[in-house]
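Can anyone check this?
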Amino acid sequence: MKFFSVSSKPLWKRAPALRMLDHGRTFLPIVGALYFLAIVSYFFVWIVDPFNFRPWGATAKLADHPYIDRVVPFLFSVAARDGTDLVIVGGSTSVNYSTAMLREAFPDAARPVNLSFFSLRARDYKMAFDRLEKSHSLKRVVIGLEWPFIKDYSGIGYTRDSRHYTNLWYDPVPEFNMETIQLSARVLATGVMDMPAWKRIDPRRPDEWYLAQPLTASPDKMEKLREAAEVSRNWVTGAPPVSCDAMQYLSTVLLPFVERMSARGVFIDLLLPPYSLALYSDWSANDPYDKIFPEHGAPFANLVSMRRCVVEMTSKIKNVHVHAFDNDSVITGDLSRYMDTGHILDLETSRQILLRVAKGDAVLTVDRWSEFENSLRNLVNKLKP
């Protein structure tokens, strides 16, 4: 009878703890190597700094094509350093202006770029302005004056990741990810701020609108607009005007930038979005932005007051023009040009607007204000979509 026996199995197969130790000897070097590679990559992005968030880094240029929307908010610092001399800054009403349109309208511009993106808020304008002010090459800035200058509503679209513009000691490279590692390598190799995935499907329009159809292609939408016009006809333009003091972002975000850039000889075009005439009754009756202008007639009162305040605030600043197409019913009265009541879809219309901005044939001044407001009020009151 055997009281004990010696197993033929190796010790590591008989003891789980030793078995784990043996696996650790195998995988720890791999984990260590990956961790070391991640640290090296992290510092690689920090040193190259492809978005120019920091004072150092590689000098990159913007690509000569429009970028997809999610990338645009990170391009302003690059535009401020790469020789860009003309920039459009705006929201969704400005995204349709292509590089080709800019070159045609402003042939003297050597490096024009449209840096407009969807769901722009007043705080996003400030971010853009702060970075563009550092440019020594800018000669002209076109600013699309979106309605968030009236009320910076954070519920629209998606929130911008502001941490990318904050230098925190515990997160010095917040933009770090696999894409920025590849981007840093491409910037060093080509000197161009670009990735294959950053090109639009159609360079003439944003991907978000690639399959969009004009309003007139939808009988249901048109019927809804006709109902809104009839329901609101007695009060759509009847609300009292809004005080300029209530529009704090005009005085705290827009005006300081315009004054400082104008003093440097930069020409500023303030482009009031050419909303359709149907927008005022549409927003009054249907309110697409969750009660942003909830009172009867508030959309007209707020948007028209913003136009008046912009004209008054900038009237004595040199090199500044305010462009308004609201009462051009050939544009704003034709819903076949629009994707919805606020956004022009037709590319030829966008092209013509930009050409007219360059010519200055729709400039709104203090002297013309009363005529402009009365004309727009009459057009909206008589509207029959």
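Reply from J.R.: I decoded it. Strands lie at 61-62, 86-89, 112-114, 140-144, 192-193, 267-272, 320-324, 338-340, 343-344.
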